[in-house]
Amino acid sequence: MTTLGYHASHEQFPPGELLDLAAHARQAGFDAMMCSDHFHPWSRAQGQSGHAWSWLGAAMARVDTSFGVVNSPVGRYHPAVIAQAVATLASMFPERFWLAVGSGEAINETITGEEWPSKDARNRRLLEAVQVMRALWRGETVNHRGAFRVEHAQLFTRPESLPQVYVAALSPETAAWGAQWADGLITVSQPMEKLRPIVQAFRDNGGADKPLLLQVKLSYAQSDEDALRGAHEQWRTNVVEPALTEDVSTPQAYEALGERVTPEKVAGSVHVSADPSKHVAWLRAYVELGFHALYLHNVNRWQREFIDVFGREVLPALR
């Protein structure tokens, strides 16, 4: 059975409210949770950016399901610190936490003032980070010289089983590369002609028997007009082509790019509808493509209405 999860967006809601929303989603029938890990929101209209790791401990203590986070473990963080954070959560909540790793975005990682590397360089240091974290989780004493340094590091609090590490991929090239070392794939909803090649590249390069996770961008409201307006207000900065945004380092710069984005363009990237049956059909297509877990992100402000309606009408239709 496909896992149907709730995506908690730290960029859009204060952490206390987000904690209540996660609990509400669980009560409504969502199977699992995941969250973002940002220093900045994508726009000032989103307006928040709580610390994911502080929130995860509280959320996992309150909500009795699995959690995951999409994180760049090297950049503004050090891999040994993320390894320790993961090990602590996995020790307290066995078999309930997973980590997805990506090469990062300038809007978050450049805050330390370090030079922003090329995509190839970011991928190389990401793989180094994963190798270091896994060594630490195995109990090894790690010394490392490469894109970053580690000196005599050893974790004394470790989970009984190695945490799962998924690759976050937005292109077939990254999916094919990550399939060789990751425990699974996570990507975001896109038109099928773009999504299928990502899935196929992962399967063809070592990921055939590994889980596929999808973060689904949707906008549900009481009317189609409200759903489109809410999506455009909150998410237009996020539908700009990645090639234009990978070096953008401030919310204000994202907003400038988003000024050119029409509501119609948003609707081409986000599933916008007030009709639950349309959402069922869209989500069923992802299940048929082979995704093992769908994490639903309602990109507008109306979260409780979305949770209640989907809990009653959408989730049961997919089970």
Q: Keywords, please?
A:
319 residues, TIGR03885 family FMN-dependent LLM class oxidoreductase, 13 helices, 8-stranded parallel β-barrel, alpha/beta, Luciferase-like_sf, oxidoreductase, TIM Barrel
Question: Can you offer a commentary on this structure?
Answer:
Its EC number is 1.-.-.-. Keywords: Oxidoreductase. There is one protein chain. The chain has 319 residues and is α/β, with parallel strands linked by helices. The chain has a single domain (3-318), classed as Luciferase-like domain (TIM Barrel), CATH 3.20.20.30. The chain is built from 13 helices and 11 strands. Helix 6 links the parallel strand 7 and strand 8. Helix 1 (15-28) packs parallel to helix 2 (52-62), helix 1 packs parallel to helix 13 (303-314) and helix 3 crosses helix 5 (119-137). It starts with a strand and ends in a 5-residue tail after the last helix.
- Can you give the helix content as a percent range? 40-55%
Largest sheet: 8 strands, parallel, barrel
| End-to-end separation | 7 Å
How many domain regions?
1
What portion of the residues fall into strands of 2 or more residues?
15-25%
CATH class: Alpha Beta
Name of the CATH superfamily: Luciferase-like domain
What is the helix tally? 13
Strand order of the main beta sheet, please?
1-2-3-4-7-8-9-11
What's the gyration radius in Å?
19 Å
- The number of E-state strands comes to 11
Shape: globular
Name the poorly predicted regions.
none
Give the structural class. Answer: alpha/beta
Instruction: Kindly report the average pLDDT value.
Output: 96
String of helices and strands: EHEHEHEHHEEEHEHEHHHHEHEH
* CATH architecture name: Alpha-Beta Barrel
If you consult CATH, what is the topology? TIM Barrel
GO molecular function: oxidoreductase activity
Keywords: Oxidoreductase
Domain Luciferase-like: 7-292
Pfam families: Bac_luciferase
